Amino acid sequence: METSTAAMMMDHHHRAAPSLSAEEKRRIERVARCVARDRDGGDLTEKLLLRLLGLTRNARRWGFLAPDHQLHPYYLQQKVSERCRILRPRHAAATAADR
């Protein structure tokens, strides 16, 4: 994770989290899961999604992708959580094989 992203997450972590509807939560979690599973770390997918956001101007639905959006910290948290979840089984299997 880049230093600026980590710093941004820390900064937003101390702020009150905005309330999320169930639909917003599901949408953010799905996108975070998709981005986290990309081989390049999701950078290309995020750039594409941000470009589509700019073209469609549907900030109500996809605005959380923009770094200045109030739901962006939640999106980052979900993306990092999913990356960790993906990596954990490999680590556990490697540890078991070493025994």
TrEMBL record:
<dbReference type="InterPro" id="IPR035967">
    <property type="entry name" value="SWAP/Surp_sf"/>
</dbReference>
<dbReference type="Pfam" id="PF01805">
    <property type="entry name" value="Surp"/>
</dbReference>
<protein>
    <recommendedName>
        <fullName>SURP motif domain-containing protein</fullName>
    </recommendedName>
</protein>
<dbReference type="GO" id="GO:0006397">
    <property type="term" value="P:mRNA processing"/>
</dbReference>
<dbReference type="GO" id="GO:0003723">
    <property type="term" value="F:RNA binding"/>
</dbReference>
<dbReference type="InterPro" id="IPR000061">
    <property type="entry name" value="Surp"/>
</dbReference>
<keyword id="KW-0507">mRNA processing</keyword>
<feature type="region of interest" description="Disordered">
    <location>
        <begin position="1"/>
        <end position="24"/>
    </location>
</feature>
<feature type="domain" description="SURP motif">
    <location>
        <begin position="27"/>
        <end position="75"/>
    </location>
</feature>
